[in-house]
Write a structure and sequence with these properties.
Oligomer: single chain
Structural class: alpha+beta
Order of helices and strands: EEEEEHHHHEEEEHHHH
CATH architecture: Alpha-Beta Complex
Strand order of the largest sheet: 1-2-3-5-4
CATH topology: Aminoglycoside 3'-phosphotransferase, Chain: A, domain 2
CATH class: Alpha Beta
Organism: Mycoplasma marinum
Radius of gyration: 18 Å
Low-confidence stretches: none
Helix content: 25-40%
Protein name: Aminoglycoside phosphotransferase domain-containing protein
Number of strands: 9
Domain Aminoglycoside phosphotransferase: 9-203
């Protein structure tokens, strides 16, 4: 795609993203940085969702979407309800995705830390528990796999869910846990989000286990980097909180 202007978008932990301007308007460009688990999906399969930006172009090196004019996402009841309905639509869809990548990701991230220094005690402490949780999980539901707060984009057309590069099949409780702990929801916000998703559509015990898994995967993922993408204190705190809830 030929463009008139290209401006780097700050943020993101490993991707290079840009706002590009063409004669047809503004678009969002991501330069793909491949690992063993991302960009395995056929992005055209997302076209049926009205909460996913329009796909413009996709190849092995880059992907281009319509550009979303972002507004502040306030985690009030209206927005939490919309986020919950988005997740429910994903989970109830017939979206065809790669098989679950959760166990392979956990093992690869954990192995990458074996020879690093200053690794948190929680890496060893929770490894077997996290593996066991994955073994017990359902793997038949389409998942976004990274639905933290920054991947919900508020616009004047509603909320969009972006950054689908790690999407796979798996257990819906993983996505729910990711929304809750990845958006730092308080108890009231979490309660309303889950009520909006539907109390008949999830299991509280499985959700507690999924929270532990989400935080553990985040911990081993982030400690592979020489410089942490963000502070790990809340992640470690969530691990201990969720192991107590699990017990």
């Amino acid at each position: 795609m030929k463009y008139i202007q290209k401006n780097k978008i700050e943020g993101g932990h490993k991707n290079k993203t840009f706002k590009i301007k063409t004669t047809d308007g503004n678009f969002f460009l991501k330069i793909k940085k491949h690992d063993n688990f991302n960009h395995k999906i056929d992005y055209k399969n997302l076209n049926n969702f009205n909460f996913v930006p329009k796909l413009i172009f996709d190849d092995d090196n880059e992907i281009i979407w319509e550009f979303l004019e972002k507004q502040e996402l306030i985690l009030n009841k209206e927005n939490l309800s919309e986020m919950a309905q988005i997740m429910l639509k994903v989970h109830n869809s017939k979206l065809v995705l790669p098989i679950s990548n959760h166990k392979a990701r956990l093992i690869e991230y954990y192995e990458a830390l074996k020879h690093k220094e200053n690794i948190p005690l929680e890496v060893e402490q929770f490894y077997e528990t996290a593996l066991k949780i994955i073994e017990e999980f359902d793997i038949s539901t389409p998942l976004h796999n990274d639905p933290w707060m920054n991947n919900f984009v508020k616009t004047n057309r509603g909320i969009f869910l972006v950054d689908w590069e790690y999407a796979s099949m798996g257990d819906k409780h993983f996505d729910l846990a990711f929304v809750i702990d990845g958006s730092w929801l308080n108890e009231d916000q979490e309660y309303f989000f889950l009520q909006s998703y539907g109390i008949e559509n999830y299991d509280q015990e499985k959700l507690s286990k999924a929270k532990l898994l989400v935080n553990y995967l985040t911990l081993v993922w982030m400690h592979r980097f020489d410089e942490l993408p963000f502070d790990d204190k809340i992640i470690k705190s969530n691990l201990h909180k969720n192991i107590n809830n699990k017990e």
